[in-house]
């Protein structure tokens, strides 16, 4: 399972690599990282069939995660990647907007990595 993590905070990469070390070593999951919405779209245009799950921050400079979500759902519909939105602000407005745009899940920071692993394993088995 290839997972694209989109977050403008560069320390997120080390955090995911540490928390998913066992899954990465076992070949269960492969992570790619983009630090902006624009970088994520570039990745998706090059590796469209590769990303089956996208974890995207909402609040990023330039293109927001919500704008990225909208573009992904418009341009990368086949096969449709699962998109989970991540935010430090669990407000109803962001949640409602993300769901309206087609987000598959909504996580708030700091998120529980055990819960996230369970969600990812459930997706992998579907």
Number of helices: 6
How would you describe the shape?
globular
**% residues in beta strands:** 15-25%
Q: Uncertain segments of ≥5 residues (pLDDT<50)?
A: none
Number of strands: 5
Cα Rg = 13 Å
Strand order of the largest sheet: 2-1-3-4-5
Q: What average pLDDT do the residues reach?
A: 88
Structural class: alpha/beta
Order of helices and strands: EHHEHEHEHEH
Share of helix among residues?
A: 40-55%
The major beta sheet can be summarized as:
5 strands, parallel
Question: Can you walk me through this structure?
Answer:
The protein has helices at about 10-20, 20-25, 35-45, 65-75, 90-100, 115-125, and strands at about 1-5, 30-35, 50-55, 80-85, 105-110. With about 130 residues, it is an alpha/beta fold. It has a five-stranded parallel beta sheet with strand order 2-1-3-4-5, sandwiched between helices. α5 links the parallel β4 and β5 (about 105-110). The longest helix is centred in the C-terminal third of the chain and has 13 residues, at about 115-125.
Layout: helices, strands, pairs:
Blueprint: E1 2-6, H1 11-19, H2 21-25, E2 30-34, H3 37-46, E3 51-57, H4 65-75, E4 82-87, H5 92-100, E5 105-108, H6 113-125
Parallel strand pairs: 1-2, 1-3, 3-4, 4-5
Helix pairs in contact: 3-4
């Amino acid at each position: 399972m290839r997972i694209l993590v989109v977050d403008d905070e560069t320390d997120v990469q080390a955090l995911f690599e540490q928390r998913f070390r066992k899954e990465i070593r076992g070949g269960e999951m492969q992570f790619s990282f983009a630090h902006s919405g624009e970088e994520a779209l570039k990745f998706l245009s090059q590796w469209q069939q590769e990303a089956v799950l996208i974890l995207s921050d909402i609040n990023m400079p330039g293109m927001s995660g919500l704008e990225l979500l909208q573009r992904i759902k418009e341009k990368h519909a086949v096969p449709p990647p699962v998109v989970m939105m991540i935010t430090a602000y669990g407000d109803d407005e962001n949640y409602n907007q993300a769901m309206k745009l087609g987000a598959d899940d909504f996580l708030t920071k700091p998120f529980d990595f055990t819960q996230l692993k369970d969600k990812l394993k459930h997706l992998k088995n579907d």
